[in-house]
Amino acid sequence: MPSFKPAYIRTSEKGLLREKKEEALHILKSCTLCPRKCRADRLSGELGVCKTGTDAWVSSYNPHFGEEAPLVGHNGSGTIFFTHCNLMCIFCQNYDISHEGCGESVSAEMLSRIMLFLQDSGCHNINFVTPSHVVPQILSALEPAIEKGLSVPLIYNTGAYDRPETLKLLEGVFDIYMPDFKFWDSEIAEKTCDARDYPAVAREAIAEMYRQVGDLVTDESGIAMRGLLVRHLVLPHGLAGTREIMRFISGQISPDTYVNIMPQYRPCGRASEIRELSGFPTKKEYEAALRAAKEEGITRLDKPRRVFAVC
Question: Which domains does the chain have, with CATH numbers?
Answer without folding.
Answer: 7-50+58-301 (3.20.20.70)
